[in-house]
Design goal:
The complex is a heterodimer of chains A (284) and B (289). With 284 residues, chain A is mainly alpha-helical. Helix content of chain A is 74%, strand content 0%. In chain A, α6 runs antiparallel to α10. The radius of gyration of chain A is 36 Å and the shape is elongated. In chain B, 35% of the residues lie in helices and 29% in strands. Chain B has two domains: 218 residues, P-loop containing nucleotide triphosphate hydrolases (Rossmann fold); 59 residues, no CATH class. The longest helix of chain B is centred in the middle third of the chain and has 14 residues. Chain B has a six-stranded mixed beta sheet with strand order 6-7-8-3-9-10, sandwiched between helices. A four-stranded antiparallel beta sheet of chain B has the order 2-1-4-5. Chain B has a four-stranded antiparallel beta sheet with strand order 12-13-11-14. The interface between A and B is medium-sized, with 33 and 34 residues.
């Protein structure tokens, strides 16, 4: 800033009142004078009182700290949180399931076990894998946690959906491994092979999900475990029937598959409804 | 600051009406529900938390039904259930971190908050211990910590002091008193002294209905003239104990001091006494024989 400008500014400031008021501008009588006045108008600046400024900023900071700012976690964050806080046992079980699926497929191929034997072994394995994956959902209902979890921002219903999604992804991975590595040893096409594996899996999951909310007392864990074993045994049922894996039995497989899918949908809807109503959460 | 309105809320389980057309308006302050077992306190609290759906009636928070508010309502909520749930294989720290994540406490703030809460309830030294190794009192303290973890504007505590020793109970009362500013704190208990010390409003619940409401003094005054003191002979004391609701009985020399709660003078020579909240409890919930 040169000396001339400094002098002009000083002059303007010295014309203004010292108490911080902005003077009401007098209206010039002629338009030319108005223009001149516009030009000469200077934005008046208060001299800053640093201590007052600090105090005001401190008050704003305090008010901002006191204010509860809401943080809405995204779906991915919620998904990650559910995964992050799973027990190491459950994670180890998931890893074991995947590894076992691979080893089983390799073993079946190496020993040239094909046809109905291969399908039966794989379907029983898938049933047990499904039950293990679903145990993450079952955990939400254990230890009286369901009631508390229902009152959290991410509530029980949403947690159940996330855990089911996670279990579904893992089941899909197991199914892909089994199908990808063993379908060649069977006479059935990929679609048929998938159907033979999926039908027992669907029915066992229906039974397992039903057990989640039916038995919720001290023996619940044992009953669910028994249900898991029963599901595995039921998956072996087609082996008893002659021609169960033949083409002429396919309509039955389709029918059972459709019925299983419908029941599964109904069961999931029922569980979410029970959570919403709350009665079965609190009374058991 | 939230306002909770309970509008003719009823909850029916099959043939039993657990909560019967209860209407209340709750603002900032501590509300203590007092009632015998099975009075409907827990059911009402569960409905306030959104765990149970009312059979009829509405619960509104700032004018909107809580089921409509959904997650927004749960943001405001801190809840300690009667049967407090926990994963026994979690450490106290991990458990609180898990709940902080589920309560949408930002991750960078959560660690700080968890430590603050552990300090507040005196579990800082045990934060790395598995919950399965905790005593009943420690578990209860952990429950209180999780309930206030997200600095809730509506704090609902069901039997918060059961299982706590007197020192822990005093600590808990102080925490609640400190927290009560700018919040709705609702607690249910049958420990009369808890309510007496910290509740701004006492609500007496019987058979699903609110039978009395007011400040501790107002509620106590409602039984003025119904509390009597009497020094009786031992045989007479036995007889009176079997006939009336006796809130206190102690030997004084060769005679027995009796504090009787009765709408009418129990016997000649009995003198009226200043009522306390325990007398109120006995008057409403103790069956007069």
């Amino acid at each position: 800033m040169d000396d001339k400008m400094k002098q002009e500014k000083w002059k303007l400031l010295s014309d203004e009142p010292k108490d911080g008021r902005i003077l009401q501008e007098k209206k010039p009588p002629f338009p030319d004078e108005e223009k001149k006045s516009e030009r000469s108008r200077e934005v008046w600046r208060f001299p800053l009182d640093e201590s007052k400024k600090e105090n005001s900023l401190a008050a704003i900071r305090k008010a901002a700290e006191a204010k509860q700012l809401r943080h809405y976690p995204s779906f991915c964050v919620n998904l990650w949180n559910q995964f992050r806080f799973q027990s190491w046992r459950y994670r180890a079980a998931q890893g074991t399931v995947l590894l076992s699926a691979m080893l089983l497929s390799v073993w079946l191929n190496q020993n040239k076990i094909a046809g109905s034997d291969s399908i039966a072994v794989c379907s029983v394995f898938l049933v047990f894998a499904g039950n293990i994956c679903f145990s993450g959902v079952a955990r939400l209902f254990s230890w009286h946690m369901a009631e508390l979890e229902q009152t959290l921002y991410l509530n029980l219903k949403q947690m159940v959906c996330i855990r089911m999604l996670e279990a579904g992804i893992l089941d899909l991975a197991v199914l892909s491994i089994l199908t990808g590595l063993t379908v060649g040893s069977s006479n059935a096409g990929t679609g048929e092979y998938l159907l033979y594996l999926l039908v027992p899996f669907l029915w066992s999951d229906v039974l397992y999900l039903h057990m989640l909310t039916v038995f919720r007392n001290g023996l619940a864990g044992y009953r669910q475990f028994s249900a898991g074993i029963l599901c595995g045994l039921l998956a072996l049922f087609p082996v008893i029937l002659e021609d169960a894996y033949e083409t002429q039995a396919l309509p039955w497989w389709y029918a059972f598959g459709l019925a299983g899918a419908l029941l599964m949908g109904t069961e999931i809807y029922g569980i979410l409804g029970k959570i919403e109503g709350g009665d079965s959460l609190c009374l058991n | 600051m939230p306002e909770l309105v309970i509008d003719r809320v009823t909850k029916q389980f099959k043939n039993k009406i657990a909560v019967d057309a209860v209407s209340l308006r709750l603002h900032n302050g501590v509300y203590g529900f007092l009632g015998a077992n099975g009075a409907g306190k827990t059911t009402l609290l569960r409905m306030l938390c959104g765990v149970l759906k009312p059979t009829s009636g509405e619960i509104r928070c700032n004018g909107t039904e809580i089921s409509t508010l959904d997650g927004e309502y749960r943001f405001l909520l801190g809840y300690l259930p009667q049967d407090f749930g926990y994963y026994p294989d979690f450490t106290a720290k991990r458990y609180l971190e898990y709940l902080a994540a589920c309560k949408a406490v930002p991750k960078d703030l959560a660690k700080e908050k968890v430590q603050e809460m552990l300090r507040l309830v005196g579990l800082e030294g045990e934060q790395k211990q598995k919950i399965r190794t905790f005593s009943g009192g420690m578990i209860r303290r952990l429950g209180i910590a999780q309930a206030i973890l997200n600095e809730p504007e509506i704090l609902i505590l069901d039997e918060p002091t059961s299982g706590l020793d007197p020192k822990e109970r005093i600590r808990f009362r102080n925490i609640i008193s400190a927290l009560s500013k700018g919040r709705i704190v609702i607690l249910s208990t049958h420990i009369v002294s808890d309510v007496e010390f910290i509740a701004d409003q006492v609500l007496l619940m019987k058979e699903g209905s609110i039978v009395g409401q007011g400040t501790s003094r107002e509620v106590t005054d409602s039984v003025r003239g119904k509390v009597w003191e009497y020094l009786a002979e031992p045989e007479e004391a036995d007889r009176m104990n079997g006939t009336f609701a006796v809130s206190n009985l102690r030997n004084e020399g060769d005679r027995v001091y009796l504090r009787i709660v009765s709408a009418t003078c129990p016997c000649e020579g009995a003198a009226p006494a200043d009522p306390g909240l325990e007398d109120v409890y006995l008057y409403y919930f103790g069956t007069e024989k």
